[in-house]
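Replying to the earlier thread about multi-chain prediction with a worked example.

Input:
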Amino acid sequence: MVKISKDLINSLSKLAKINLTKEQEEKYAGEFASVMGYMDEIKNLDVEDIPETSRVSDEGNVLREDVIKPSLSQEQSLKNSKNTSNGYFLVPQILKED
Amino acid sequence: MLIDKSIKELSDLLKKKEISSVDLVKESYSKIEKYDSKLHSFITIREKNESLKEAEKKDRTRKEDSSIIYGLPFSIKDAYCTENFRTTAGNKILDDFLPPYSSEIYKKIVNSGSILVGKNNMDAWGHGGSTENTDYQPAHNPWDVERIPGGSSGGSAISISTRMVPFSIGEDTGGSIRSPSSACNISGLKVTYGRVSRLGAIAYASSLDSVGPMAKSVEDLSHLLEIMAGQDVLDSTSSRVKVDKYNQFLGRPIKGKIIGLPKEFFEKGLDPKVKKVIIEATKVFEKLGAKIQEVSLPHFIYGVSIYYLIALSETSSNLGRYDSFRFGGERELFSTETKKRILLGTYALSAGYSDKLYKKAQKLRTILIQEYNEALKTCDVLLAPVNPSLPSKIGELINDPLKNLMEDLYTGTISLVGAPSLSIPAGFADGLPVGMQIVGKKFGEGELFCFGYLYQQETDWHKRLPTILKNEK
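Result:
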């Protein structure tokens, strides 16, 4: 049985920028243990010299001329944001002044 | 009931002016008004008068050489961007999202003259196989309203099964077209990865996502794929392989062809009632002259682990962009299931684990592809169940995390190799539909249609109407 601590769940939630409720922490610790326990089945499979597959498309690199074409206007690009200013997306301050 | 007719029949009747697009759109809305409040097939229904006005215009502008889908109503999974028309992906984060542009697939269908009636319900972001993990209302199976319709494209499957629309556009990452097609007794196609443009499709797992048609029959799917397929310069994973004339495959004999049954797909985990239906289906193919042969895909028993490690890693990355600054609500609005998937993906990619989990899964994916290629050297297609069990009661899967994952055993594994897979009705068990999938070589959709079409000439499973419609004709 894989053991999943609440600390691990908390550090994952920080990495993924998702706040969890106390109930979710409990629930996920339990569910992760059962899912990761199941996935443990691949632990002993030998894949030493096998290359990784990251895509199944056979296209390789697809190139085209870099030609400027009409695209979204500033107004269209900003219209789904809840917080804009002078044609910019407004985001919370992350650097603090000393 | 006009919408019970095939796409070809409807197109012929429209061109002969025996029926009109207005008739079809009216029938579509009358079905939606009658059944959608019970089944929750749609998240957003288009204003009826808008659709009717468009239908009137189609009736005036139809020509002899108009597309076969010109003037037909259709629905589309809410995973596809539709310009200035609400697109939620089943999630409250996008509750008021009005896309600034349309997905390529939506444009292709609309440019061929079809009329949108609404956006279908789905598991949020495609995360699920039951259409319960939607932030709107959980969807119900028209064959038994206490059961799930499969998912994540459950809303699309319901709208076809109940004849609200003649066809719908679904999305399949690890079974999301095939599973609801099986559960709702309709025909659905997961295309070869890259066959149809993904531009404007809200991503679940980018190396697996595929855009496919859902309809009443294989014949209808063949017409739709011809319209949908092809390279898109704005989707670099879309393929340059030539698009076949798919309906030319219909009616071709399969005498002497070999169907492989992957033995790992018929072992533990498969409900004996489902197995019985699939075995019966193989006898129909034998009658048509095909040979049945057992094949082995030894690593496919690890398919669920490999599939989830890859899909969840990719989704944790894809969903990082929903930060509420550019669009969407706060990340707190992700559902419990989606948060879980993001965290699992984050775990599989995190320092110290990515070699053991994500990268190992990618290596195992290579082995699956090799085994699949070997198997397809000895046979023309593979045949397998779609779902390991009958559609479960609402609430059963969402509360059982492992069982929820195991539902994707036969479909997610096929997605990993990028192969096409056709899901068609194969019979019934306990009054509930059972689907089979016919899996082929990459870009071999035509061959799948050939097998599926002949099967549907010999059987009438796909013509049977769900219990909820039994008083209609």
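The first strand of chain A starts at residue 84 and ends at 85.

Feel free to reuse this layout for your own posts.
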